[in-house]
Amino acid sequence: MSPVLIRGVRLYGAGDPVDVLVDDRQIAEIGAGLTAPADAEVIEATGQILLPGLVDLHTHLREPGREDTETIETGSAAAALGGFTAVFAMANTDPVADTAVVTDHVWQRGQDIGLVDVHPVGAVTVGLAGEQLTEMGAMAAGAARVKMFSDDGKCVHDPLVMRRALEYASGLGVLIAQHAEEPRLTVGAVAHEGPNAARLGLAGWPRSAEESIVARDAILARDAGARVHICHASTAGTVELLKWAKGQGISITAEVTPHHLLLDDSRLASYDGVNRVNPPLREASDALALRAALADGVIDAVATDHAPHAAQEKCCEFANARPGMLGLQTALSVIAETMVAPGLLDWRGVARVMSENPAAIVGLADQGRPLAVGEPANLTVVDPEARWTVTGDELASKSTNTPYQSMTLPATVTATLLRGRITARDGQARRREVDAP
Ligand code: NCD
Ligand code: ZN
């Protein structure tokens, strides 16, 4: 693998521009005016920013089972182009990732493609049915070393099952991530319960469906002495509960999606199925509360909840559209728009919520590392001044269900490096075969 010289970047977007030499999978040298070794690939990045590679705790890659909508290969390309060096692929595939056979397959497939580390998430319950715990220990001990378990797409709603899952996970040192949705409160629900849904005649999903589970699980985690992670926090009330729980010393962490930070339920008026997502787009006041919580650390991390769906599953009546939106290639830009532009986070803060914190939450030793000599070269180069217009057809994902269609957003990822190898550059993903020695 040839060395890479990144010229003229500012580390975390601050300080004087420096050159960064990457060799032998690591950051080999940082300094001004470094000379490129003869065989080096040079990235001219004057005016650009260097961040640690981004880590996504919540991605749906659809393989196995729905390879018509996304594969580990197309999803990996979207991830690399979005600046990610590690993603966590949710377990709601077909078959469900509830055995080591499936989780090891997903991990190995990701390694063979080599664009991003694809960490499989194991299911908490067999078949996501919410009844019988999976053999988490076997998945954690397999080749994939599964670190996170979730029934995402569904809530582990039985409190006794959730209690046992937390106890079991705590003993194994792995993380339970909860899709917080009390199913009795969301029967038939397709949109945020509020004036907009009422006016449009859409069945409402109340904030309480999320908040009642967040409160319950905080208490269960407290009494089990376990950690719990809340997926896609979407309401101002969840923010208050997280504040309370963290104040009590409960081991609780939470993620927020880019779409819940930028979009709200005023978009529903078009009845366009692209806006259907779980949890639903909330009100503008919720989005503002989520932004403030991400800025002050009450919410720990950004996670995309990248959820590809086929055109026929989205271009239909709103209530029949599948919930979920693409997110991998637009995440950094949406964070630039919602958090950096208004001054809520600087780029140092972006590195924290999109790389360091997610890596720490799940215990990834080689990601979210400092930009320093001797560290693994998992890196993302960002042009903060560039702007681009999103077109679903041009995204690497096999599906096109982006809610940002035709929107112009700030910041582009110009290069991504995984263990010193360029996985994306100037809008092109580079599979391992392309430049293998
Ligand atoms: C996800 C999916 O499509 O798998 N959909 C969604 O609306 N977020 C499931 C999930 O993350 O809950
Ligand atoms: Zn979910």
Automatic annotation (TrEMBL):
<keyword id="KW-0665">Pyrimidine biosynthesis</keyword>
<feature type="binding site">
    <location>
        <position position="278"/>
    </location>
    <ligand>
        <name>substrate</name>
    </ligand>
</feature>
<dbReference type="GO" id="GO:0044205">
    <property type="term" value="P:'de novo' UMP biosynthetic process"/>
</dbReference>
<feature type="domain" description="Dihydroorotase catalytic">
    <location>
        <begin position="47"/>
        <end position="235"/>
    </location>
</feature>
<dbReference type="InterPro" id="IPR032466">
    <property type="entry name" value="Metal_Hydrolase"/>
</dbReference>
<dbReference type="InterPro" id="IPR002195">
    <property type="entry name" value="Dihydroorotase_CS"/>
</dbReference>
<dbReference type="InterPro" id="IPR004722">
    <property type="entry name" value="DHOase"/>
</dbReference>
<feature type="binding site">
    <location>
        <position position="232"/>
    </location>
    <ligand>
        <name>Zn(2+) 2</name>
    </ligand>
</feature>
<feature type="binding site">
    <location>
        <position position="60"/>
    </location>
    <ligand>
        <name>Zn(2+) 1</name>
    </ligand>
</feature>
<comment type="pathway">
    <text>Pyrimidine metabolism; UMP biosynthesis via de novo pathway; (S)-dihydroorotate from bicarbonate: step 3/3.</text>
</comment>
<comment type="function">
    <text>Catalyzes the reversible cyclization of carbamoyl aspartate to dihydroorotate.</text>
</comment>
<keyword id="KW-0479">Metal-binding</keyword>
<dbReference type="GO" id="GO:0004151">
    <property type="term" value="F:dihydroorotase activity"/>
</dbReference>
<keyword id="KW-0378">Hydrolase</keyword>
<feature type="binding site">
    <location>
        <begin position="323"/>
        <end position="324"/>
    </location>
    <ligand>
        <name>substrate</name>
    </ligand>
</feature>
<feature type="active site">
    <location>
        <position position="305"/>
    </location>
</feature>
<dbReference type="Pfam" id="PF12890">
    <property type="entry name" value="DHOase"/>
</dbReference>
<keyword id="KW-0862">Zinc</keyword>
<dbReference type="GO" id="GO:0006145">
    <property type="term" value="P:purine nucleobase catabolic process"/>
</dbReference>
<dbReference type="GO" id="GO:0008270">
    <property type="term" value="F:zinc ion binding"/>
</dbReference>
<feature type="binding site">
    <location>
        <position position="92"/>
    </location>
    <ligand>
        <name>substrate</name>
    </ligand>
</feature>
<protein>
    <recommendedName>
        <fullName>Dihydroorotase</fullName>
        <ecNumber>3.5.2.3</ecNumber>
    </recommendedName>
</protein>
<feature type="binding site">
    <location>
        <position position="305"/>
    </location>
    <ligand>
        <name>Zn(2+) 1</name>
    </ligand>
</feature>
<dbReference type="GO" id="GO:0005737">
    <property type="term" value="C:cytoplasm"/>
</dbReference>
<feature type="binding site">
    <location>
        <position position="58"/>
    </location>
    <ligand>
        <name>Zn(2+) 1</name>
    </ligand>
</feature>
<feature type="binding site">
    <location>
        <begin position="60"/>
        <end position="62"/>
    </location>
    <ligand>
        <name>substrate</name>
    </ligand>
</feature>
<dbReference type="InterPro" id="IPR011059">
    <property type="entry name" value="Metal-dep_hydrolase_composite"/>
</dbReference>
<feature type="binding site">
    <location>
        <position position="152"/>
    </location>
    <ligand>
        <name>Zn(2+) 1</name>
    </ligand>
</feature>
<feature type="binding site">
    <location>
        <position position="152"/>
    </location>
    <ligand>
        <name>Zn(2+) 2</name>
    </ligand>
</feature>
<dbReference type="InterPro" id="IPR050138">
    <property type="entry name" value="DHOase/Allantoinase_Hydrolase"/>
</dbReference>
<feature type="binding site">
    <location>
        <position position="309"/>
    </location>
    <ligand>
        <name>substrate</name>
    </ligand>
</feature>
<dbReference type="GO" id="GO:0004038">
    <property type="term" value="F:allantoinase activity"/>
</dbReference>
<comment type="similarity">
    <text>Belongs to the metallo-dependent hydrolases superfamily. DHOase family. Class I DHOase subfamily.</text>
</comment>
<feature type="binding site">
    <location>
        <position position="179"/>
    </location>
    <ligand>
        <name>Zn(2+) 2</name>
    </ligand>
</feature>
<dbReference type="InterPro" id="IPR024403">
    <property type="entry name" value="DHOase_cat"/>
</dbReference>
